Amino acid sequence: MKDFALLFRSLEETTSTNRKISALISFYESAPREEISYAVLYLTGNKPRRIVSSALMRSWAAEEAGIAEWLFEECYQVVGDLSETLSLIIPDSGKSGLFKMGEIVGKVFPLLAAADEATKKEIVKDIWRNMSVNERFLFNKMIGGSFRVGVSSQIVITSLSRYSGLPESVIAQRLMGKITPSADFIDVLLAEETTRDISRPYPFALAYPLGNEPEELGEPGEWQAEWKWDGIRAQLVKREGKVFLWSRGMELINDSFPDIISAAAELPEGTVLDGELLVMLDGKVLPFNSLQQRIGKKSPGKKLISANPVYLMAYDIPEYDTADIRDLPISERRIKLNQVISGFKGDDNRILLSPVLDFNSWSELREIRRGSREMGVEGLMLKRKSSPYFDGRKRGDWWKWKVDPLTVDCVLLYAQPGHGRRAGLFTDYTFAVWDNGKLVPFAKAYSGLTDKEINEVDRFVKANTIEKFGPVRSVTPMLVFELAFEGLQLSTRHKSGIAVRFPRISRWRRDLDIKDADDLQKLKEYLKAISPGDADAGS
User: Fold this and answer.
1) Distance between CA atoms of 202 and 321, rounded to whole angstroms?
2) What are phi and psi of 97, to 5 degrees?
3) Which pLDDT does position 375 carry in this prediction?
4) For every residue of 130-161, which 3-state class applies, written as one string?
5) Please, where are the H alpha helices in 345-476?
6) Rounded Cα distance, 250 and 466, in Å
7) Which of 317, 395, 451, 464 is the most buried (most CB within 10 A)?
8) In what order do the strands lie in the sheet containing 377-384?
């Protein structure tokens, strides 16, 4: 664990991609193989789940350090990162390197997950006393569910490629699917040749947001346009008579979607489809919250499946007739995709072909895009007809042209400090809209302001605090902001009765008084336009 802790610290302390790659390569050269496997597991997005609450860790650390909890909270506000505060405040024993990653993950984590509070406290405090500051920092991140570091899967793939001499495409392919950390896993990952895993999907090809007008892409005839579906990206794999359904997050989700697995029995051998999981009724795509009811359900009942039938809207085919065809242009892959989908029979096929949209000019496509929300989609996908199915993102070939976000003018009600470089600044905000003469909280957001604006809001919060609730402060309602979001749905968990998707601050409305902010009715009108049934249910 000592080597991984040092690596984690070095990755945290730099924003340079080259330095991160160099740190990873140095780690591969010196760390035990098993420890490398855990680093690969966690740095490629497989984050450990929280098994100890932050409230308990705060209390235990304050007790261990012999300080009052209020003093711990003051330290936390200065440091800005809970795991680091915990690691620094506990007296250093001078011990290091006593624990292996396999021991922590394989033995300690299960013990903590099953233990009562008193036993958890005893285990955690004993481990703290036998770790260095860096090891405690990593351990706290893992058990507290806050394992985040500025390293993408691509950086890990690049570093492994440079270390091993294998092509990045080979590393990326071998990392797809479930990772079982062990020295053997690393040996197989970096071997010159390896036995093929029939369940393994391909690295997903990803798109960049279209930041400019589509006219800048050149001739429209060189591009294929499709709907940008609002569901779960997935690959459906059929090899040697077995079917595997993988999410983009590399989870095997067969159990959650038995209707798709059953339908895939009709697929030809050696087929891999890329598409979007959607809930559809009578040919109409239902809002994302309908799909959420199926997510994570290991054994969905017949009633749930019937009420929320899931379909795979297929739009690409990385593998056809057992052959990897990712290098073929999408225009040719599309022909093979049509052949596979057209082979399905029956009235309720759960695997559908995502349509290619007909257009002759960018202005014509722009008109099609305006109807996105009525279609229940997020906008359009633009793919160069000559493009291969590449690993990850490749700028220039695939673009997502999303519809303009919905917006609402709202009032700042609460604020709390951020973390990391924003520690000590009030950067996390809660916003409200009017409802029958009262301000009702409806969304939280922390992105969208410039550093200068953040400092200005921070000064306002400190000068206009009404009450304190731990780190949260309520403020005098004076500031109005325009909030942008992608969608909304009914929610009994929110005071407003509505939850918004991906809220962020689009601008500070200095020109508006709080009486000019929008009311809840505007959100309900948005909801009615997008999903009339939901709006009626919430009225």
Assistant:
1) 15
2) 75, 20
3) 85
4) CCCHHHHHHHHHHHCCCCCCCCCHHHHHHHHH
5) 362-369, 372-375, 451-463
6) 46
7) 317
8) 208-209, 398-402, 377-384, 223-229
CB 42 within 8 A of CB 156: no
Residue 289: both structure tokens together: 């919250």
Please state at what angle helix 69-79 crosses helix 82-89, rounded to 10 degrees: 120
The tokens for 482 are 């325009």
Q: How far apart are CA 415 and CA 26, in angstroms?
A: 41
Domain boundaries of the chain, sorted by first residue: 2-143, 205-402, 406-538
Query: How far from the centroid of its chain's Cα atoms is residue 473's Cα?
Result: 28
pLDDT beneath 50, residues of the chain: 535-539
* Residue 338: count of CB within 10 angstroms of its CB: 13
pTM, two decimals, is 0.71
Cα separation, 70 vs 141, in Å, equals 22
Task: Give the pLDDT confidence of 51-110 residue by residue, as tens digits.
Answer: 988 889 989 999 989 998 888 888 887 787 888 888 898 888 888 889 999 999 999 999
At residue 492, the pLDDT reads 66
The confidence score (pLDDT) of residue 534 equals 53
Q: From the CB of residue 28, how many other CB atoms can be counted at a distance below 10 Å?
A: 21
Q: Please give the distance of CA 346 from its chain centroid, rounded to a whole number.
A: 36
- CATH code for the structural domain at 205-402: 3.30.470.30
Per DSSP, the three-state class of 503 is coil
Strand, coil or helix: 228:
strand
Residue 303: exposure state from Cβ atoms within 10 A (0-12, 13-18, ≥19)? exposed
* Contact between residue 434 and residue 498 where contact means Cβ atoms under 8 Å apart: no
Residues in the chain: 539
Main-chain dihedrals φ then ψ at residue 121, nearest 5 degrees: -60, -45
181-206: b or e for each residue (b if 16 or more CB lie within 10 Å)? beeebbeebbeeeeeeeebbbbbbbe
pLDDT tens digits, one per residue of 490-520: 766 677 778 788 899 999 999 999 999 999 8
Tokens describing residue 384 = 């160069």
Instruction: Kindly give the interhelix angle for 82-89 and 54-65, rounded to the nearest 10 degrees.
Output: 20
**Separation of alpha carbons 205 and 390, rounded Å:** 5
- Two domains, one topology: 2-143 and 406-538: no
The CA distance from 437 to 414, in Å, is 18
AA letter at 451 = D
The pLDDT value recorded for residue 539 is 44
The closest alpha carbon to 138, from 191, 72, 86, belongs to 86
Q: Which CATH superfamily is domain 2-143 in?
A: DNA ligase, ATP-dependent, N-terminal domain (1.10.3260.10)
Q: What are 536's two structure tokens?
A: 């009626």
**CB within 8 A of 307, min separation 6: which ones?**
none
The pair of structure tokens assigned to 383 is 């793919």
Tell me, what's the pLDDT at 477?
Answer: 95
Strand pairing report for 271-281 and 242-247: unpaired
Q: Which long-range contacts (CB under 8 A, 24 or more apart) does 531-534 make?
A: 531/287, 531/489, 534/287, 534/489, 534/490
The partner residues of 208 in beta bridges, in order of sequence, read 399
Architecture of domain 406-538: Beta Barrel (2.40)
